[in-house]
Amino acid sequence: MEQRRKQAGHLFAAGKMILAAIARELRVSRQSVSRWYAKWRRRGAVALRGAGRAGRKPKLNAQQLQHVERALRRGARAHGFGTDLWTLPRVATVIGRLTGVHYHPGHVWKILGAIDWTLQRPAKRAKERDPEKVQGWLTERWPAVKKTLAEEKLGSSFRTRAGSRNAPPSAEPGLPRGKRRS
Predict the structure, then answer these.
(1) Does any domain span residue 82?
(2) Are both 78 and 110 inside the same structural domain?
(3) What is residue 141's DSSP assignment?
(4) What does the pLDDT look like over 20-63, one tens digit per residue?
(5) Whole-Å CA distances, 178 to 156, 157, 173, 175
(6) Residue 15 sits in which domain range?
(7) SS3 annotation, 129-171
(8) What pTM does this model have?
(9) How many distinct structural domains can be found in the chain?
(10) Are 67 and 91 within one domain?
(11) Which of 16, 69, 81, 88 is the most exposed place for a label (fewest CB within 10 A)?
């Protein structure tokens, strides 16, 4: 948007176009061009510059963010935690230790997003898991289960409901398909 305001300032200075034509040229509303023109007449091209950054300035600068990222890459155990799993409270603690800036754990995800870290959940596996039994199940039991599932015919457990919309309905409710009471 600032680029459009600068272009408008050049067109105002040239004095060759009316405000409506400038609005069409820049594809903005006539009201915006009128507002820009009033500012330009009062203070010149300086008035058309952008307002700058919106919101609060970040607590951590780029160098501090790089320092935090390097520390996180070393792992949680390197910072005295029992496991190598990073949680938001743990990351907040490390940021506080390294930089002196304290964040609420609920806000740490914004910092992680700024350094392109995403949520990674570890795979959940039972502690009692036996890889040999799993492999045996996959090679022996699963093919048998899969085979029986494929062999089952389409149908419904309710006698009054058709197993498929394409199948012809039974002659009377409660009877198998195609059977009539005799």
Answers:
(1) yes
(2) yes
(3) I
(4) 999 998 999 999 999 989 988 898 888 888 777 778 888 899 99
(5) 15, 17, 11, 8
(6) 2-48
(7) CCHHHHHHHHHHHHHHHHHHHHHCCCCCCCCCCCCCCCCCCCC
(8) 0.46
(9) 2
(10) yes
(11) 16
